[in-house]
Structures are given as C-alpha cells and as structure tokens.
C-alpha cells in the first residue's frame, strides 16, 4: 500500500517539495551478503511510486531480484536537518513506463540529459530497466 503525504504538516510539505525539486536521491538495496548498497539515482514520484531507471545488469537490479526491500533518501543539510527517508519494496520492469510518466520524468531531467550530451532515447537504451519503489513509510525531520 502506498503512503499518503500529508502536505498540511511542515514535514509533509517539505517531503512534497523535495520530491518535486531534488535531482538526486540515494537508492539503497541489499546485497546477497546483507550489506546495504547505496547508489545515487534520478527519480520521479507520481504519488504512489518512485520511478528510477537502471542498466539491466547493475548491482541494484541484481540485489532487488534477490531482495525487494529498498530505501531512498535525500542528502540532508550541513547540520543534519531536512532528513527524508522512504522505505518499502521495489520491483523491476523491462517494459517502458507509460508515455505520460516518461514525459514527467524527462521534464524533471531534461537539463541533466543535455548536460550529459545525450538524448532521451539514448539514455533509455542504456538505462532500460525501470525500478518502481513503493514506499511503505516516510520518516525524517
């Protein structure tokens, strides 16, 4: 079951702002030896899932095949403020997301795509596996 973010609270409003504005999140999966494996990722929130793209042979995809538990967090401030951590389960999918979801994702990251001197299509060829993280909980302060 997806979480509901109560934007009437200070924390909920902060979470919503960060979901919309943060460019990088840290996806943490679990290796087969139980060790956490963090990786910086681009993401898109649609109100239910965090969409992340990955190379199909990446460690995070292999980790999720063995253990779907995952988290995503943002960098915090210099004094440890503005902590936001999502925990839940993730699944991978080799099918492309619906066009409207892809458009929303790339609207957020068009500047990053240009900075990498690539195209949406080229990026999708390399990072062809979609990861959908469904948060069961969001914590922080």
Low-confidence stretches: none
Rg (CA only): 15 Å
Quote the average pLDDT: 94
Structural class: alpha+beta
CATH hierarchy, class: Mainly Beta
Overall shape: globular
| Count of strand segments | 7
| Relative strand content | 25-35%
Q: In whole angstroms, how far apart are the ends?
A: 23 Å
H/I helix tally: 4
At the fold tier of CATH, the topology name is Pnp Oxidase, Chain A
Superfamily at the CATH H level?
Electron Transport, Fmn-binding Protein, Chain A
Structure in words:
The chain has 141 residues and is an alpha+beta fold. It has a single domain (10-140), classed as Electron Transport, Fmn-binding Protein, Chain A (Pnp Oxidase, Chain A, Roll), CATH 2.30.110. The protein is 31% helix and 33% strand. Strands 2-1-5-6-7-4-3 form a seven-stranded antiparallel sheet. A hairpin with a 4-residue loop joins strand 3 (44-45) and strand 4. It is globular. The mean pLDDT is 94.
């Amino acid at each position: 079951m997806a979480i509901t973010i109560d934007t009437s609270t200070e924390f909920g409003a902060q979470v919503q702002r960060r979901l919309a504005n943060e460019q990088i999140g840290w996806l943490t999966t679990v290796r087969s030896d139980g060790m956490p494996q963090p990786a910086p990722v681009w993401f898109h929130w649609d109100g239910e899932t965090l969409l992340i793209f990955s190379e199909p042979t990446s460690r995070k995809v292999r980790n999720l095949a063995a253990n779907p538990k995952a988290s995503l967090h943002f960098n915090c401030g210099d004094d440890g403020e503005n902590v936001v951590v999502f925990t839940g389960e993730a699944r991978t999918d080799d099918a492309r997301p619906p066009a409207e979801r892809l458009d929303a994702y790339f609207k957020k990251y068009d500047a990053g795509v240009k900075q990498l001197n690539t195209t949406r299509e080229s990026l999708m060829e390399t990072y062809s596996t979609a990861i959908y993280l469904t948060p069961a909980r969001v914590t922080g302060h």
